[in-house]
Amino acid sequence: MRKLRTTLLSLAFAAAAMGAAHGEELQELRLKVIGGWSNVTMTTVVEQPFWQRTLPEISGGRITADFNSLDTLGLKGDETLRLLKLKIADIVTGPVSFVAGDFKLYDGLDLSGAILDLGSMRKAVDAYRPVIDKNMQENFNAHLLMMWPSPPQVLFCKGEIKGVADLAGKKIRTFNQTLSDFVEAVGGTPVNLSFAEVVPALQNGTADCGVTGTGPGNSAKWWEVTDHLFPLVLGWSPYFSAVNLDSWNQLDEPTRNFLTDAFAKLEDEMWAHVGAAATEGINCNTGVGECKTGIKADMKLVDVSDADKALLAGMVTETILPRWASRCGEACVAEWNGTVGKALGFEAGAK
């Protein structure tokens, strides 16, 4: 199935290239690209091959890329838009919520526990896309190209847990403020760590649990330092890809149209990859079921009870949404309510 999907994607890209070829010839470009983490399959299976193989092929060799992953460059992920603004790179990838240190609206796509399925996440991203793009253009001289989710963000824990109540007193790795709101609501202590810092923290006791995607946690071998997997969906840790706005505006229309179409197809492939990786990540971490692309481990899978789901739903309405609304401000909340909130049936407001 994966091979068939890759073949269909290549045909779609080829069709786009043929369409572009009927117009003016594409500009010749050598792009400096900062991509995602090198130890997750979204980067190695989808993103990196696009830049290093697919794009040169479908552009007839006229558009190529110098591709480097975040961790290869020693980056934590919160610097990418600033690097883009400085024209140190032409195109960058980064976690959406990492920009929330500058603008709280970016957490609006990663409110812990608010979006529980991939279809709802796609609706939220499509609704919020103009808001994100407008902010990027005004503050980072950047144009938003794509957004896509990680596999569902769940808990990897060291030591036995049976449900939400057992998280009280735990030191739990987080990577955005809304996750910290969740951890505080359950009586735990949030520990803000970048992805690369988590395994050492779990080894030395700085953290007892960590939140990440089912697939990334497997490929980064979190199962070597944890033993319980609690698949309570706390978010989707969406990523963005953006281009320097000046560079984008300097492209001629055929080249810009060609790239816009190519990025739309790549974005669809990202979403398809996440859909497949979500279930397989659980299978690989627990060693039960099909595990084709990951590493089989033997973590204990903790059942998510109806009581746990009800607790999380209560935290979303009573704690997570109101706290975020207070941080983001009235104008920001109104924009979110009119886009994401309208699409999903939520209404945020500070208390």
Sequence-ordered SSE layout with sheet pairings:
Blueprint: H1 2-21, E1 29-35, H2 41-58, E2 63-69, H3 80-85, E3 91-95, H4 118-140, E4 142-148, E5 153-157, E6 171-174, H5 177-185, E7 189-192, H6 198-204, E8 209-213, H7 214-219, E9 228-230, E10 239-244, H8 245-249, H9 253-286, E11 300-301, H10 306-328, H11 330-344
Parallel strand pairs: 1-2, 1-3, 6-7, 6-8, 9-11
Antiparallel strand pairs: 3-10, 4-10, 5-8, 5-9
Structure, described:
The protein has eleven helices and eleven strands. It has a six-stranded mixed β-sheet, sandwiched between helices. Strands 2-1-3-10-4 form a five-stranded mixed β-sheet, sandwiched between helices. It has two domains: 2-150 and 237-279, 3-Layer(aba) Sandwich (D-Maltodextrin-Binding Protein, domain 2), CATH 3.40.190; 153-235 and 294-326, Bacterial extracellular solute-binding protein, family 7 (D-Maltodextrin-Binding Protein, domain 2, 3-Layer(aba) Sandwich), CATH 3.40.190. The longest helix has 34 residues, at 253-286. By secondary structure, the chain is α/β, with parallel strands linked by helices.
